[in-house]
Amino acid sequence: MKKTISSIALMAGMFAMASCSDFLDQESPSSMGQNNVYNSTYFTELRINRIVGDLMQDRSYSQDLAIVWNMNSDVELVDGLGDNAFNTGSERGNMNYNLSPNWTRLNDTWKQLYATVEDCNDAIAGIRSSELLNSEKNSDRLAMRRYLGEALTLRALTYRDLTKFWGDVPMKLEPSSPDLSNAYLEKTDRDVILDQMMEDLEEAIEYLPWADEVAGYTTERPTKGFAHALLAQLALTRAGYAIREQAKEGYETKQGYSDPTYPTQRPDAATRNALYKKAAEHCYAVISDNHHSLNPSFENEWFLINQLVLDKNYHENLYEIPMGLNFASELGYTVGVRLNGITSKYGFNNSSGKMKVTAPLLYSYDKNDTRRDITCANFEIKEDAGVTKEMMLKNAPFGIYVGKWDPRKESDEWLQQNLKTTSKHMTGINPVIMRYSQVLLYYAEAMNELAGPDGIIEGCTLTARQALARVHTRAFADANKADAQAYIDNIPANKEAFFNAIVDENAWEFAGEGYRKFDLIRWGILAEKIWEMKEKYINALVAGDYPATLYWKWADAAQTQIDMSSVTFYETGLTDNDALALGYCTVKTNETTGEQTKTVNKVDGFGKSSVDKTDDSQVYTNLPSISSGLVGKGNPYMGDNMGDGVTVKNRYIMPIGASTISASNGKLHNSYGYSD
Predict the structure, then answer these.
(1) Is residue 391 a part of any domain in this protein?
(2) How far apart, in whole angstroms, are the C-alpha atoms of residue 377 and residue 564?
(3) pLDDT tens figures, 588-601
(4) Structural domain includes residue 376
(5) The pTM is what?
(6) I need a surface site. Which of 102, 134, 193, 414 has the fewest CB within 10 A?
(7) How far apart are CA 227 and CA 286, in angstroms?
(8) Which among 448, 537, 542 has a CA at the least distance from the CA of 501?
(9) What DSSP state is assigned to residue 618?
(10) Does a structural domain hold residue 435?
(11) What's the chain's average pLDDT?
């Protein structure tokens, strides 16, 4: 029988084999009757694995939701500026907020997310009707409760994503009827959806174990800690700003960058305080339980992610979607340190082109912050005369690679395959949906709102300042931790100053991971921070803060690896002669005569651009095009204002795809000035 596609494409997701051993080679229960499936713990688990298979698809977390759809923020941007930034038929235009309902990816991702919803609804209904849920056999009852908790949590995650991208969307909480009588639905207010998902998560928390508390419940499955943290995230989102299809009575309208027809609003103060309290309590449940903690080494946190190794010591990553080498995940391929061409050391090249970070981000880090060089990879790896070398990028202020995903750190198994392959193969790197450092910063934010930087509330004994200190000081070596703590201690004891410190820490900790855009949205400062990034870039050029030339030293005797601590990011007055005298050079020895020659290691730095050169592509072409659909095509140096020429202010929401609307039986329509 041919499938009918409903208005929200609620068709069952294809059963995709997941990557880890827990999800491999599973028999599909689709041919079995509903009662038989959910009266067997074995087949019920297979049904949950089918939901995980949904998350592994390209239009879900293998590619789109882990990389592309999380841009642009003030620190991350999609590659492809200038004319590319206005191409409404590709991600390059759409992620610069030049959005069009005719971008076909909108329909594909919508379908995939609602396929996941449908599979979750099927599992939830099936488990609730199962006799095993109330079985006298304790092991069966507990297993079915855990599976119910997983399905509820994954549905909440999926609706989180749907509302992030589209705002108000249809909410469907039951399986589709054979006659599709409940398939064509109108939009539901996102606040109603978030309230329902928080209620579901309260239930799921009761059923789920902590990570590794029960055999098989690793951080590749939804656990109690993740459900707590996701609920806290939804509470903070619910308390925050969002652009609305129409003004809501009793809500506060944002001052400044808000559209008169589609206002950016948040709930009243009393509602917000209740939501902040909820967020703080659920974060504190994770913090106080001690199943999760920070890996003392930020570098090791990312080494393990690249190695496909679950951290069972600290459980810093509360939930990772399991992918598996060669099965799924483009992390490390379309985002990460660049392999520019086939190399003898690492094999087949990657693209690493979708997401970049910026020079203002790089310069915002403290010089001793270990996160800077892990996050900002201002170099690429190339083959030079049969030798694989790291080479600095030339004046790429908006083209710095995201170093968190790094082929130099990937597993030996990946390396051996990449040396042999002649085409792209999936890295298997798990997308991390929630990290413990997020929990600490969410907690700091909520506590700051409720009690200021140094106060506490009943039931929560950690202050906001103490939580922030844990994240910040972790990023510094032992020799620099006192200075890092001094930075925290010196943040003024008022809510506004402390909130600004949280916003900064969020960038330093999470740049490239795709979380920041949505935090900036709920804080009501997405457009403002993007415009501020442009101003910082211009101001640095005018002040001469960026060196026109970058010099570096080699870290190894073979002169193939850059010593990133030696790069002259902060030296604006060096000459080539100075650099040679200081050892910023490549030394070659003549094998016959033994004579040595020295060649200075240098490339054009960010300061090579100038506001005085009206044909400078970085200043007058690339900069104005960044996020132009949200903040306008203006240039701060030219006296332009944020939002000049923008159709709808603060329109970060995606339009519903044209094909989705045409198949909706008239139930769905676009808003925010988008056409159908």
Answers:
(1) yes
(2) 9
(3) 998 888 899 999 99
(4) yes
(5) 0.94
(6) 134
(7) 10
(8) 448
(9) I
(10) no
(11) 93
